[in-house]
Design a protein that fits this description.
Elements lengths: L6 H9 L10 H7 L4 H11 L7 H13 L4 H19 L33 H15 L9 H12 L2 H15 L14 H15 L1 H10 L7 H6 L8 H11 L5 H20 L4 H9 L5 H14 L4
Helix pairs in contact: 3-4, 5-6, 6-7, 6-8, 7-8, 9-10, 9-13, 13-14, 13-15
């Protein structure tokens, strides 16, 4: 492959254990999940329904078209996943111009979604959607869940290559997938289990802050659910997240490192939190300016002393 990667991208790729000589297999997945001839015909015929205003009539006619060529339930199940991915991607990183740059290639969507039909060109967000859809199809036990859009966007922003991003995303998700599987919520590595672990670490390392939270009835899920599931993606600007993820990216310990970074963030915010009431605490925890260099310095001290192991 002839992609020119940045030094940071190469480090992320290496840390995630992705072999560049193997990533071209991704395009066989792209071919497999392109519209087949039956789906192309469905796509064409569904476009003839654009003037149907009544929603129930539209759905009835659409289902009649689909059933001529393939199983309706399977088609609609896949379309629902694709639709959710597209909607989430449209809300992802809207402040970053990079994701809106037009591509030379026009990506034809696998499904005819009415709200996408006016688009004349494709941009980097269409690549993110394709990565997520292929991942969901190849990993049906995990599928797609909101939040994955933030993870893949961060990776793609640095790597800037679709095939390599797919495999880096797959490696990243292999370590945190339990956070996205609802049936595993209460397990050690599930979302609730990780929030409980963070609360235990807070009690162990910053008992005064934990007592303050208890007094104010600030429960872990009020702030840490988003922190953990999105690997802190919403707590910083994109460029700050890239800096944070330089520490986070790893082939084996991402989930553990997320907790360490959460503790570092709480330690950084502690002087203000300990003096704040409920409303002020929530603002600090959910939306406040932060010194990334200072947070990383605290995190590195945590790592050095192996406080969270």
């Amino acid at each position: 492959m002839n992609v020119q990667f940045s030094q940071r991208a190469l480090k992320w790729i290496e840390k995630l254990g992705v072999k560049l000589e193997q990533v071209n297999i991704y395009f066989s997945f792209v071919d497999e999940f392109k519209q087949n001839e039956q789906e192309k015909q469905i796509y064409i015929e569904i476009q003839t329904l654009n003037d149907v205003e009544d929603h129930e009539e539209y759905l009835h006619k659409k289902n009649n078209i689909i059933c001529k060529y393939m199983d309706v339930d399977k088609y609609l199940e896949d379309e629902t996943v694709f639709d959710q991915i597209q909607k989430d991607i449209q809300r992802t990183q809207n402040e970053e111009p990079f994701f809106f740059e037009e591509l030379k290639e026009k990506i034809i969507p696998k499904f005819q979604l009415q709200w996408l039909k006016e688009r004349k060109s494709s941009n980097h967000k269409d690549i993110l959607a394709r990565i997520l859809y292929i991942y969901a199809r190849l990993n049906p036990a995990i599928g797609y869940t909101q939040g994955m859009n933030e993870i893949v966007a961060n990776l793609y922003y640095v790597i800037n290559d679709e095939a390599t991003t797919f495999f880096c995303f797959t490696s990243f998700m292999s370590q945190i997938k339990d956070l996205y599987i609802r049936s595993l919520n209460n397990t050690k590595d599930g979302l609730k289990g990780q929030m409980l672990r963070l609360d235990q670490l807070l009690n162990q390392l910053e008992p005064n802050l934990q007592k303050h939270f208890t007094k104010l009835e600030i429960h872990p899920q009020f702030y840490s659910m988003r922190w953990i599931k999105l690997a802190l993606s919403h707590e910083f600007t994109l460029d700050q997240i890239v800096q944070i993820w330089d520490e986070l990216i790893d082939q084996r310990e991402i989930q553990q490192k997320i907790l360490g970074l959460c503790i570092a963030l709480l330690k950084y915010l502690k002087p203000k939190l300990i003096q704040a009431d409920f409303v002020q605490c929530m603002k600090l925890l959910q939306n406040s300016e932060k010194d990334v260099d200072q947070i990383l310095k605290i995190y590195q001290e945590i790592q050095k002393k192996q406080m969270i192991y």
